[in-house]
Amino acid sequence: MMNPSDPLLSVRDLSVTFANDAGTLTAVDGLGFSVAPGECLAIVGESGSGKSVTAMSILGLTRFNGGTLTSGAIRFRRRNGETLDLARADEPTLRTVRGNEIAMIFQEPMTALNPVYPIGEQIAEAIRAHRPVSREAANAEALALIEKVRIPEPERRFGQYPHELSGGMRQRIVIAMALACRPSLLIADEPTTALDVTIQAQILYLVRSLARGNGMAMLFITHDMGVVAEIADRVLVMRHGRKVEEAAVGPFFSAPEESYSQALLAAVPRLGSAPAPETVPQTPTPLLEVRNLVTRFPVRRGILGRHVANVHAVEDVSLTISRGETLALVGESGCGKSTTGRSIVRLVDPLSGSVALEGEDVLGLDEARLRRRRRDMQIIFQDPYAALDPRQTAFEQIADPMLIHGMERGSALRDRVVSLLRRVGLGEEHMSRYPHEFSGGQRQRLCIARALGLSPKLIVADEAVSALDVSIQKQVVELLQQLQAELGISYLFISHDMGVVERMSHRVAVMYMGRVVEIGPRASVFGNPRHPYTRALLAAVPTPDPANRRREAPPVVALRSPIHPIGYAAPAARYDDFGDGHLVLAS
């Protein structure tokens, strides 16, 4: 039996290895730490540093993807007061712990959700699996959890499937499932990566409040130093599988001891610190011109799938992007950002409006011409795991588009792939690896390298750096800017990270409920926001300073339903002009 003052979780001398073609890879090397009840320990470090492997080892999950725990003890104090060494527990025992006493939120929500079951049923099943409650009680609690993580229209969402939700909404569902059984320890692996800043602020406050109220401990893995400052009590820095530094959150941010920790903090984007971008000359004919774009999705009900309403995903959106310019598109999860990007490159067919690339009507192209035109407009998706073919190596993923478009062959193709990998922080040794052998951040870098391979004129970057830790994120942003300066590439940069947006963009467009509510030069939008929603977005950004930690619940941004009856005509968008291209939707 352990004393009440003992740690809830104590990890000692943990080492985890993986076998590969080159021999044995040590992912975690002699790691030790502890977490007390009600305490939040943040684990930070570069992508591939061993953070996620550490988290999965606690629940015995590494054994399912080839990992071997070669040494160490993972002592966990159970609810009944007994101590269990998770490193030596058998699978039946671990099943009684997983989800019930220790819950985990994974980085990529689609890997944690079953695509063939409605999300409400999945939450209710998690509750019934660990607690003796009726189906009706479990359903009612699941509905309450969906509402608690602030998903609009919880009754309708209850019966929807994962593919029908945005990335941010899926992540909120995963968080709801993790909280369903009120665990003693919550392991959160990049839980707010897919969330926009307003929802992130709500979720962080919610999780922190629940942890304090229930004495729940947290192991919080993140690359967002603003999140660390907002939620952590202590910080553990990892590199190459080893502990670099461990300190209380205040001293860590004010005076980190190790040079690696100092470099991590120096890479953090801070609002107001980005230098003013060079002005991009506005040419008479922009590279991309979008006018009055409307995209809707049918809502079908009943056994026969009768079309009863429409989701107004994108409503009367107009924007332009010049050659060599970056327009950032920001807003709430589910506001229509990703659908706007997909409509522009015709991965989704708009209902009406026009999209012109170099003056050519993209919406009017036939399949053959569109296939050739897509070389000029590439997209980097939000979920790197879903965007990569699990059967192809990294070399094949990057080389295939170039082969399809007849760009390179033989040794020249190999040299081009190696060059692209190096430009995004990977190396020649990664060419033979498959997607599952990369960390989440490394997979996203692979997607970026593939998009750059065709030397496109326009890249739609849909949360392209959201999965990257701060040091790699800074490198990739600088890479994108360098490519822009050298090649004149334009970006539609879709992101919820306002610090990265400020660093990356020339102009900013803010979306809310399918509409652009504010658009203008970055300095004007960030320095003098005019629309209430823009002000709420900026106010929700966490600052990398524990002294500025949020003490009260963040304001809730009112959400309206985007679903309207068939035949509903939305009012035309009218904008007030505040000069220099700064437009704000008239109320």
TrEMBL record:
Residues 11-265, 288-538 form the ABC transporter domain. It is an enzyme of class 7 (translocase). Its main location: membrane. It is a peripheral membrane protein. Its EC number is 7.4.2.10. It catalyses: glutathione(out) + ATP + H2O = glutathione(in) + ADP + phosphate + H(+). GO terms for cellular component: plasma membrane. GO terms for molecular function: ATP binding; ATP hydrolysis activity. It comes from the Bacteria. Pfam families: ABC_tran, oligo_HPY. GO terms for biological process: peptide transport; transmembrane transport. It is found in: Cell inner membrane. Keywords: ATP-binding, Cell inner membrane, Cell membrane, Hydrolase, Membrane, Nucleotide-binding, Repeat, Translocase, Transport. SUPFAM superfamilies: P-loop containing nucleoside triphosphate hydrolases (SSF52540). PROSITE patterns: ABC_TRANSPORTER_1, ABC_TRANSPORTER_2. InterPro entries: AAA+_ATPase (IPR003593), ABC_transp_ATP-bind (IPR050319), ABC_transporter-like_ATP-bd (IPR003439), ABC_transporter-like_CS (IPR017871), Oligopep_ABC_C (IPR013563), P-loop_NTPase (IPR027417). Part of the ABC transporter complex GsiABCD involved in glutathione import. Responsible for energy coupling to the transport system. The complex is composed of two ATP-binding proteins (GsiA), two transmembrane proteins (GsiC and GsiD) and a solute-binding protein (GsiB). Belongs to the ABC transporter superfamily. Glutathione importer (TC 3.A.1.5.11) family. This is Glutathione import ATP-binding protein GsiA.
